[in-house]
Amino acid sequence: MDSSLLMLMPLLVLSSLIISCCGNFHRDFEITWGNGRARILNEGKLLTLSLDKASGSGFQSKHEYLFGKIDMQLKLVPGNSAGTVTAYYLSSKGSAWDEIDFEFLGNLSGDPYILHTNVFSHGKGNREQQFYLWFDPTADFHTYSILWNPQRIVFYADGTPIREFKNSEPIGVPFPKSQPMRIYSSLWNADDWATRGGLVKTDWSKAPFTASYRNFNAKTCVRSSRSSSCHGSSSSNDAWLSQELDNASQERLRWVQKNYMIYNYCTDTKRFPQGLPPECRSTS
Ligand SMILES: *[C@@H]1O[C@H](CO)[C@@H](O)[C@H](O)[C@H]1NC(C)=O
Ligand SMILES: *[C@@H]1O[C@H](CO)[C@@H](O)[C@H](O)[C@H]1NC(C)=O
Questions:
Q1: 154 alpha carbon to ligand 2 midpoint, in Å?
Q2: Distance CA 57, CA 185 (A)
Q3: What DSSP line would sit under 34-48, residue for residue?
């Protein structure tokens, strides 16, 4: 086990391992807003969010997590979804919050969604990377995953890594590792910026817009008073806590970044005239 994990042991022993398989939305989530526009259906197996001119809707996890490997299947707003944003993210609270973001920016029928990602540590973000997808995210459910352990954050689509944010604390970059986060999701109107930079507005004659969720599956450490820990379980169960990208995964990551990445803050020299952020300059 590497030393950064050993240093975290006392922290992890305070928390407990929860494995949520074949998720039940009634058990793991609560609807937080939208006045009936968010619904849990099929005995907890399906959740839908909707958006109309009056309001969007949203939900959050009941638990807070400190590290996790979290999968969720989403089927995004089909047809003309221009102006809509489906946000799916992890976030802690307070003014120095941490956050790990997926945001799906809708588009006109047949035009590609943008998958927008960001990582905030201690209240500071500005680490956007954006992608097109190699599939139609509205035609069926696809799995979006976040691996968050003490060494790295990896974003995945259908098991393919699309982004890796490594722990660069040794070169002075804060990394989210001490504030527990909840899962949040919402569907809302952002036609002032979302589609082609705000040029294409939401067509309310197509409302309500609906996004669907299923198969929440998570291995996480949960903050609670229970006595078992992340390390109490078998090694195969907590392998995610030190998981890294093997060669094949790194190869996939390069494939996505070469063919589907449309924005990377790490190459935006105009935006950072004083020099790119340190994590971009490191070769690690
Ligand atoms: C929408 O489609 C246009 C035209 O293909 C494209 O430039 C844009 O990146 C797409 N996505 C969004 C969210 O604007
Ligand atoms: C991964 O790649 C490195 C260098 O490119 C190589 O030395 C190593 O053997 C590879 N590992 C596997 C499991 O293929």
A1: 20
A2: 9
A3: STTSSEEEGGGTEEE
Helical ranges in the chain per DSSP H: 3-13, 25-28, 247-259, 278-281
Q: Hunting for tokens 């990582």 — which residue is that?
A: 119
pLDDT in tens, the chain (284 residues): 455 555 554 444 444 555 555 679 999 999 999 999 999 999 999 999 999 999 999 999 999 999 999 999 999 999 999 999 999 999 999 999 999 999 999 999 999 999 999 999 999 999 999 999 999 999 999 999 999 999 999 999 999 999 999 999 999 999 999 999 999 999 999 999 999 999 999 999 999 999 999 999 999 887 555 534 554 344 557 899 999 999 999 999 999 999 999 999 999 999 999 999 999 986 54
Q: Is 85 in the pocket of ligand 1 (CB under 6 A)?
A: no
Out of 30, 43, 64, 99, the active site residue is: 99
Decide: 114 in ligand 1 pocket, CB within 6 A.
yes
Q: Is 99 a catalytic residue?
A: yes
d(CA 221, CA 18): 6
Domain containing 185 equals 3-281
Total number of domains in the chain = 1
Question: Is residue 111 in contact with ligand 1, taking CB distance under 6 Å?
Answer: yes
CB neighbours of residue 76 within 10 Å: 24
Q: Are 187 and 77 in contact, with CB atoms under 8 Å apart? A: yes
**Which tokens hold the place of 11?**
């922290």
Cα gap 198→68, rounded to integer Å: 34
- CATH number of the domain bearing residue 8: 2.60.120.200
246 CA distance to ligand 2 centroid (A)?
A: 8
Considering the entire predicted model, what is its pTM?
Answer: 0.89
CA atoms within 13 A on the CB side of 278: 9
Residue whose C-alpha is closest to residue 179's, from 104, 95, 248: 95
